[in-house]
Amino acid sequence: MLRRSFIKTTALGSLATGIPFISDSSKSHILTLSFDDGFKKSFYRIAEIHEAYGLKACLNVIATGHMPDFKAVDDWILPELMGDFNDWNKLVGRGHEVMPHSWKHLNLTKIPFQQAQENINKCLDYFTDHLDGYRDDQAVYNYAFLASNPDLDKFALQRVAAVRTGAWLVLKDTKVNMKPVAPSAITLGAWTNGPNNNDQYLEDTVDDFLEGPGGWLVINLHGLDNEGWGPISTTCLDRLLKRLITIDKLSVQPAGEVIKMI
Questions:
Q1: E strands along the chain, which residues?
Q2: Helix (H) or strand (E) holding 202
Q3: How far is it, in rounded angstroms, from Cα 31 to Cα 33?
Q4: Which of 19, 196, 202, 239 is the most buried (most CB within 10 A)?
C-alpha cells in the first residue's frame, strides 16, 4: 500500500545528462535512501552497512522517541525500539546524517495550524540543543507520514534548508519559486511503500530510476528486517549498496549532503 502523497510545486528542468541544479556534477543520477523514525537496532545496522561501502546513511529521528512518555504511534513505532540522542550523536560522530523527523510523529495536516507550528519549532529547538553539529540552515525537516501542505512548508522553510514530504516525482530542478521564504528553500518529494517487506519495491524503484534520464530520487524507508512500517531486509540493503557503488553515473548521498551542493 502506498502512503498518501502530497504533490509539491517543483519545476522540472532539463533531462540532459548531469543534474541541472547541482553545479559541476559528474553524475546524472543521485539517490537518497531516507530512513525514518529512529529505531536503535536498525539505525546502527543501517550505518554499519553504509560504512562498509564508504557511504553515509541518511537517518531521520523523532525528537521525543526516547522520552519516558513517548507512546506507540501505531503497530510499528514502539517506544522500546527507539534510540536516544546519545545514539544519534555517536552516529553523527561516525559521519552519518541525522535529521529531524517531527516532535511526536503527528500528521501535522490533521491538527490546528498553530499546534503544528509549535510541533515543528519544538522539534527543531530540541535538535539544536541536543544533536552535535546540528544547524537549522543545513537541515532537512522530514514530515511524519510524508504529510504537509503549502502553509506548513512555508512556515518550516523559514528555519530549515529543505522539507521532505510526499510526492511521486524525480527531481530534475529544485529551483522552486519560494525566494521570499528563503533563497535556497527546497521541497523534496519522497516515495514510500508498505506496510509489508519492501525489498522488491525498493529494488524495482531503483532500477526504474537508473533506466531513466537522471535526476534526484528520494526513497523513504524505515527499519530493517521486522522493524518499522514497510521494512527492508538487511540482506537487501547490503546487496543493493554493493551493486550501486559500482555504477559510474550514480551517487548515493544523504539529503543534507545533496542540499549543500545546490
A1: 29-37, 58-61, 97-100, 140-142, 162-166, 186-191, 215-221, 250-252
A2: helix 199-211
A3: 7
A4: 19
Q: Would you tell me how many other CB atoms lie within 10 Å of the CB of residue 71?
A: 11
pLDDT at residue 18 in the model = 56
Query: What CATH code would you report for 29-261?
Result: 3.20.20.370
Residues of the chain whose pLDDT is less than 70? Answer: 1-21, 23-24, 168-186
Q: Tell me, what's the pLDDT at 262?
A: 79
Q: Which residues lie closer than 8 Å to 197 by C-beta, 6 or more apart?
A: 230, 231, 232, 233
* Residue 250 in grid coordinates: 550514480
Q: In Å, how far are 5, 171, 219, 245, 254 from 18, measured between CA atoms?
A: 27, 12, 20, 18, 18
How many Å apart are CA 29 and CA 127, to the nearest integer? 30
pLDDT of residue 15: 26
DSSP string, 177-189: S-TTT-TT-EEEE
d(CA 172, CA 214): 7
Residue type, 262: I
